[in-house]
Amino acid sequence: MCLKMLYLKSKTFLHNLFPPKSYIPKDATQQSIFLSKYPEFDGRGIKIAIIDSGIDISLEELQKTSEGHPKIIDCFDFTGAGDVETSIIKELDSKNILIGLSGRKLKIPKEWKNPSGKWKLGLKKIFKPNIVKTSEKLPEIDCIVWFNGQKWCACIETYKKDLKKAKVLTNFRDDHEYGILTLKKQKMAYCITVKNDGNLLEIFTPYDHHGSCVAQIAAAYFVKNTEKNGLAPGAQIICMNVLDSTNRYFIDSKNMILKCIEMKVDIINYSVGAFSGDKETHSLIDKAINKYNILFFKSVGNDGPFFGSIPKYDSDIENLTFKIGALSTYEMKKRFLNIMIDDKNLASSPMVYSFSSRGPGAAGSRGLDFVAPGAAITKDPHFNSEMLNYFKGTSCSTPNAAGAIACLLSGLKANLIQYSPALIKFALFKTSFLPENGNIFEFGHGIIQINEAFDYLCKNMINFESVPTWMPKASGIYFFGDNQNFLKRDVNLSNFVNAQKEDTTKWELQILSNAKNFVKVSDIDENNLFTVKVDTNKFEAGTLNFAEIMIMDPIIGSVFNIPVTVVFPLKITENQNYNFQKEICLKYENPYHIIFDLVMNEKEERNITKE
């Protein structure tokens, strides 16, 4: 109780009493092993676009890459929250005074060179970050834009009495400089971009700490404390803000993807919820991935632990993207929560966080591809005192995976090994680690292993021309067991794999060992058809059962796993008074699922409807 009171009274006091240590997990994905063998493959030459809530560009660890290049290449705000119209032109009076649009008199320093004598003015209401708990409103500020003969310049720190002390900035992409707004004790890092021949000023500032955390996990670089680094300290970042000060997301999907193509990014990290779009948007994403080789990493969401909790909005492109769930390991529990586990089996067994959304996805698909560590301790932005904070969620696991793969791509580029997003996913599929009894709807293919994936790609490039491509739209084989002892379905292989140019008769279908006792599969015929049979007598009522059908190539082994879902519900009837009891043993962070089928007569159904 005392500790809670201390926390509620002063978070800063508690933070100083029990200071956390920066920690970004790297061992689970083999990043530590990989960089110990290849320290120069740390993400160098890789650009990561972070589509999120904006980034605090002033953070120490986001200034430079391991090679000394600017860490953040450019910042884009797709919300319009920072836009200021600066089309009104004024000139100085004889005393170098400029009357701002607020009516304030602004004495312009003689050092500010403006050959044309034309000053473009705007007025902007600055919004406080949405996580800052204060009702105090920030004032409007005058904005000044001018051309100094070489480049566009801007000053928004016009609240200062002496403008000689105000920061003058130019486009961030050119000089990579930023300023710190200090308004009513509120500090906010910002940068600017001048557009439309000086008639539009874009002020870029983060309104949430989410994007800063994501950026640090993916690619933070500390010059003196490299153990605090993110997954890809050598990679560069392009920041794309989609969250405004009211916590609303503005997902300008088409322009974001076009900007990623224009900036020649290698990886997109998307950790801000479900991605939805029309056919044109999905077609553009397909183009970005298959034509421009951009890897698209996306979080599966935090709606677990229920099965089927993964959003279905992007099922048309699910197999093109990398959908990442959140992993928890024993080392993470020790570092984050100081939990010591005596049971060696539990200590060594990785788990998926209970909040991480589960499959199956659309049309019985797996729903997610891989898992990566889903928590970190990183630094908060300026507006939150730059304190270290503990974050967890699939928003953490996605940049962890993206950063790890940035290291993998760095190694491939250095060795002049050509790759595609499909090939990277295939290599990860072949080398990922699925723990014993791991559920594919929780782990996907398993935990990313970049060291093994790199070795696999280096050794097997000669065989990759024969690897078939997966169909963009996600799907699987879904059965619902209902008073039938045996279930049967004819399946077309072309729904899963682009087999038009393949001799599919050479492929063999195999069942993973966990499901051989209840799933049988026939050979593939000349029309790419095969039959799946399920014996429901093997199931316990109330369970969701999974299997995988492996498509085996005689040269490269498994080329694709087709997920099979069998729902076998527990029927609760009037004869049981709609009552059910069962004694179960619950394990830490291991959800127990029971699926019910409530059987009612028509009268009871009508009564429920009326109520």
Notes on the protein architecture:
Helix 1 packs across helix 2 (11-17), helix 6 packs parallel to helix 7 (279-290) and helix 10 runs parallel beside helix 13 (450-460). The longest helix has 21 residues, at 394-414. Strand 8 and strand 9 form a beta hairpin. The protein contains 14 helices and 29 strands. 43% of the residues are buried. Strands 1, 2, 13, 14, 15, 16, 17 and 18 form an eight-stranded mixed beta sheet that branches. Strands 3-12-11-10 form a four-stranded antiparallel beta sheet, with no helix packed on it. Strands 4-7-8-9 form a four-stranded antiparallel beta sheet, with no helix packed on it. It is elongated. It is α/β, with parallel strands linked by helices and 611 residues long. The protein is 21% helix and 25% strand.
Tell me the layout of helices and strands:
Blueprint: H1 2-9, H2 11-17, H3 31-37, E1 47-52, E2 72-77, E3 83-85, E4 88-90, E5 97-99, E6 105-107, E7 119-125, E8 140-147, E9 152-155, H4 172-175, E10 179-183, E11 186-195, E12 200-204, H5 210-219, E13 236-241, H6 253-262, E14 267-270, H7 279-290, E15 295-299, E16 322-328, H8 330-337, H9 344-348, E17 351-352, E18 370-373, E19 375-379, E20 388-392, H10 394-414, H11 421-431, H12 440-443, H13 450-460, E21 477-480, E22 486-492, E23 508-511, E24 519-521, E25 529-535, E26 543-553, E27 557-568, E28 570-572, E29 596-598, H14 602-610
Parallel strand pairs: 1-13, 1-14, 2-13, 14-15, 15-16, 16-18, 21-27, 28-29
Antiparallel strand pairs: 3-12, 4-7, 5-6, 7-8, 8-9, 10-11, 11-12, 16-17, 19-20, 22-25, 23-26, 24-25, 26-27
